[in-house]
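FIELD: query
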Amino acid sequence: MTAGRSAANRAASRAAFRAGVLECLTLIPSYVPFGLVCGVAGVQAGLGEWGAVALSAFAFAGSSQAVLTQFLSGGAPLMIAVLSGLVVNLRMAVYSAAISPRIAGATRKERMLWAAFLVDQTFISNETRHLRGQHMDHPLAFYLGCAFTLWPWWVLMNAIGAFAGAKLPTSWQLDFTIPLSFVAMVVPLLKSRGQIFAAIAGGVAGVLLYAMPLKTGLIGACVFGTCVGMLVDTMLAKRAASSGTAL
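FIELD: result
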């Protein structure tokens, strides 16, 4: 019986991993322009081809890479560039808080794996899985399937951008596709009124706060959108409670 349960558990874990791979295969096209742009930017910032590839492999954070290389290209000190990249990635703290209750029983090694590959796409894919109620006993296997698909592809696209970026026509405007890919991932997840209002408010705030220093407008937009969403949910809950009381 024990051997049978163990075999079934391994089979379920492999199935969750394969599901993660298949889930993120559809996101691969969005990594092509983003990775190429970041690879080119790394070389232009003076990191060299292999330095740009190493940055993509160890950071695995496109927006932070873009900000860091922009600051380096502008002559900013290395520490300021690094801190700016970290500020942009503060949204990962929000993601971490969202998943922390679900991995409360994870070991330290497992938590390190969750942290190492936490990006917008892996977070959203995992949230989608959770909302569907799939592979609930093997969330890490699903998550690693996502990471196994996206991380190597991200590094490869950065490498192509770093080594062949000079040959890419500037008229392609590849950086314009970066926000479009994220919009395509988020919109299907907007189910409630609170989520819809949060997305709209965050988007508007992001545009209005775009010029803030060190890209802090992005963090402000996230906070504002979250507050609006919570406010809408609270108002709707009170309205529903009032209607129930009246009845």
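FIELD: remark
Residues 2-173 form one domain.
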